[in-house]
Amino acid sequence: MTSTASLNNSPLKLKILFVYEDERAEYLIDELKEHVDLIGILHLEWKKELFFWVNLLLCALKIVQIMIKKHAWTRVSFGVLYHNAIRRLSYIKKMSSKIEKHIKAMKVRPDLVLQWSSMFAPYLNAPSVPFALIIDNYADPPNSSIKKDKLRWWSSLHEGSTLYDNSFYRLQKGLYSSSACVFTFTKWCERGLAKEYNIDPAKIVSVGWGPAAKIEGRLFEKKPKTILAVGHDYLSKGFDILVRSAEYLTDFSITIVGKDSGRSFNGLNIPENVNIMNYVSYKTLIRLYSESELFFLFTEFEPAGHVLWEAQAYGCVIIGYDAYGISEAVIHNKTGILLKTRDPVLIAEQIRKLYQDEIALARMRNSAFQNYIENGTWKVVSEKIKNRLELVYGQKNKNC
């Protein structure tokens, strides 16, 4: 049997329709074009669809009804509302039908639908065209002991749950079972999906992931004792911990880039050595990556942080929380350090230890870049996808 690790440079002779709604997929598409025959690309832009906003409104009304019934009011963010709304059966059916209509209108019928997302799929549980899914995470089953969704603040009505846990779980299980293959970004997702959804492990394969930004050159101009943190949600990424650690790292220059709601650091003293930049240009972000020696990410649940590969591509040594995708992108004591603690004092102590050996720190910077080249590019991901599909369809086998 041909190993999936062996590479064949010839394109895979399989007509594929690529479907996505998440714009991060465009980085993978660029590489996939070199490895497989993409006869079509369908971008489902839900923000332009009236039915999505109607669906969102109906979900909001449902949430209000529940709050009135329970006499319990809680703040509902857009993220919570969104992740509840996309679990409504009517939304899932509508998105699935859009893919089906697109396939019917195609001049050449695809052999496979390759889809970034597992929220829906063409023909739902009875696919007349095989589909494969690309995912970075899976929804928590009802009564899950892990409660990943809670760590992401996707639920607010009752602990660790959404409005549609049971119905959505049944639909998701059906989709995974009906799929020809499920590509996961990480090994923890591969194992968890098999265990929590009881999906045949033989049809699930982890392929890694890449950055969500264009990497430009390798000109590192590192400034001594610089720490960078980049993320959309300051609190979920653990940046409040970094601010607290900064009190014990007064000789370090710390930059935090992202989006601050105005409540993120309420009650916290912001030390003078911490620079908070809510919005920066892409050019500025590249400069910050290139100048910073360390990169900080302490998300409790990080499925597959794209910033981890962006930072390592620019030679940043990672300071990360040892869990989920962070643990798989960082090689402990080689490309960064992984910590089990979220204590600001202990984190500061570990950061100082790195600077006891400047030569070792320089080696870690080089290793971080090499780790990106070998494991963190979309080229590597697309080759793994192509090899698995070639192994499956080259042998005319219907299952991965």
What characteristics describe this protein?
400 residues, 12 strands, Rossmann fold, alpha/beta, 6-stranded parallel β-sheet, globular, 14 helices, 2 domains
Describe what this molecule looks like in 3D.
- The protein has 400 residues and is an alpha/beta fold.
- It has two domains: 216 residues, Rossmann fold (3-Layer(aba) Sandwich), CATH 3.40.50; 150 residues, Rossmann fold (3-Layer(aba) Sandwich).
- The protein is built from 14 helices and twelve strands.
- The chain has a six-stranded parallel beta sheet, sandwiched between helices. The protein has a six-stranded parallel beta sheet with strand order 9-8-7-10-11-12, with helices on both faces.
- Helix 7 links the parallel strand 5 and strand 6.
- Helix 8 crosses helix 12.
- It starts with 11 loop residues before the first strand and ends in a 6-residue tail after the last helix.
CATH architecture assignment of the largest domain: 3-Layer(aba) Sandwich
| CATH domain fold name of the largest domain | Rossmann fold
Count up the domains.
2
Total number of beta strands: 12
Shape label: globular
Main sheet specs: 6 strands, parallel
Helix proportion range: 40-55%
Compute the separation of the termini in Å: 14 Å
The CATH homologous superfamily of the largest domain is named Glycogen Phosphorylase B
The strand line-up of the biggest sheet is: 2-1-3-4-5-6
Strand content: 15-25%
Radius of gyration: 22 Å
> What is the name of the CATH class of the largest domain?
Alpha Beta
Low-confidence stretches: 1-8
**Order of SSEs, N→C?**
EHEHHHEEHHEHEEHEEHEHEHEHHH
Average pLDDT over all residues: 87
Structural class: alpha/beta
How many DSSP helices?
A: 14
